[in-house]
Design a protein that fits this description.
Length: about 375
């Protein structure tokens, strides 16, 4: 064991946690220092919103803290039920089902829906929970080049037609910030009689009309995208996740998903808080408008600095550095200048593509973006 840890350290891949001393916000207090926060997924700035906090407290007063049991025993309260109905409505699906986390939702759904006689196709850059779910399901696993629908089409064509097939993709890719080629995926799924599962953890609340996400229910219903996953810990600022789809899909998951059955229900108060954050996310369009302004300002400034951006129009803006060591050094230099960004290394991203992962929030001000750009100018040229 110690040898393995030493080897990680030598490759600049050793991970350390930081102790944060305040709520997620525009700034973070980390080990006694106040830093501008460009590394949280709280895109709409709802994680510490006073109305969401008040709803959470009211939920605790009404329901207590712990749910006491799994959903199937006695942990499924009227608050959970109300949130599931609201999420079904929000996604334009007949039903939605709450899970304790996005990780559990993905592994739980994939392992319940697939078996050894099935075939799963995953985008190479899918989130770890989607890849793990595909592997754990014991289905025949195939992965296609990132967002490459020609590659996917040839792999689909190579599989016996009687096998059940599921195509799985992130909606918004968590480390690159780009969107999946949704319309092409829908077409391919239809041509090859495959199912399509989209996990839009980073898109809900952020994209589209009223933050409906990458899968706009007005354009793509359940027959186009039968399995839709979202998480609550990102733009909605709370915790947990959901799968949305048909009555049959949801009932199948309730009967068969071990990650749903054998785990304690999320606190009911969390469902109450999430109902409030969902209401705010739908109503306050200015949050998305402001985010779009920050993204444009950053991309223009970063291009002027000659930084290597990716084609992302989302609040996830990677700056590719390449080597893990150099990425860590630049991250530390930014931090010395009061700016906190994510420094992402393999195996989270492919070798040679270590990067700064910069994320924006509706809580940022334009001057914060300028401060970030100035710090990047100083930190990347030394
Ligand atoms: C964050 C994320 C998850 C995991 O969600 P948690 O609720 O944090 O467990 C799943 N899928 C994608 C694409 C994510 O970005």
């Amino acid at each position: 064991m110690p040898a393995t840890l030493a080897a990680l350290a030598k490759k600049h891949l050793y991970r350390r946690r930081r102790v944060v001393e305040g709520p997620a916000g525009r700034e973070l207090v980390v080990e006694g220092r106040r830093l501008l926060n460009f590394c949280s997924n709280d895109y709409l700035g709802l994680a510490a919103d006073p109305r969401v906090c008040a709803a959470f407290k009211a939920g605790v007063d009404r329901w207590g803290v712990g749910s006491g049991a799994s959903h199937l025993v006695s942990g499924h309260t009227a608050a959970h039920q109300q949130l599931e109905v609201a999420l079904a409505d929000f996604t334009g699906r007949p039903r939605a089902l709450l899970f304790g986390s996005g990780y559990a939702a993905n592994v739980g759904a994939l392992s319940a829906l697939l078996g050894p006689r099935d075939q799963v196709f995953e985008d190479r850059l899918n989130h770890a929970s989607l890849l793990d779910g595909g592997w754990l399901s014991r289905a025949n696993f195939d992965w296609y080049a990132h967002a490459d629908t020609a590659d996917l089409a040839s792999r689909l064509g190579a599989v016996q037609s009687e096998r059940r097939k599921l195509i799985v993709s992130d909606g918004t890719f968590s480390m690159d910030g780009d969107l999946c080629p949704l319309d092409r995926l829908v077409d391919l799924a239809r041509q090859h009689a495959a199912w399509l599962m989209i996990d839009d953890a980073h898109g809900f609340g952020v994209h589209g009309a009223q933050g409906c996400g990458v899968v706009d229910p007005a354009r793509h219903d359940c027959s186009d995208v039968p399995v839709l996953v979202g998480t609550l810990g990102k733009a909605f600022g709370t915790a947990g996740a959901f799968v949305a789809g048909s009555e049959t899909l949801i009932e199948t998951l309730i009967q068969r998903s071990r990650h749903y059955i054998y785990t304690t229900a999320m606190p009911a108060a969390m469902a109450v808080a999430t109902l409030e954050s969902l209401r705010i996310a739908l109503a306050e369009e200015w949050r998305r408008t402001r985010l779009a302004g920050h993204i444009a300002r950053f991309r223009q400034g970063a291009a002027q600095l000659g930084l290597q951006l990716l084609p992302s129009a989302t609040p996830i803006q990677p700056v590719i550095i390449g080597a893990a060591g150099a990425t860590m050094d630049i991250g530390a230099a930014l931090e010395a200048r009061g700016v906190l960004v994510g420094a992402i290394r393999p195996p989270t991203v492919p070798a040679g593509t270590a990067r700064l992962r910069i994320t924006f929030s509706a809580l940022h001000e334009s001057a914060d973006i300028d401060r970030l750009l100035a710090a990047l100018a100083e930190s990347t040229t030394t």
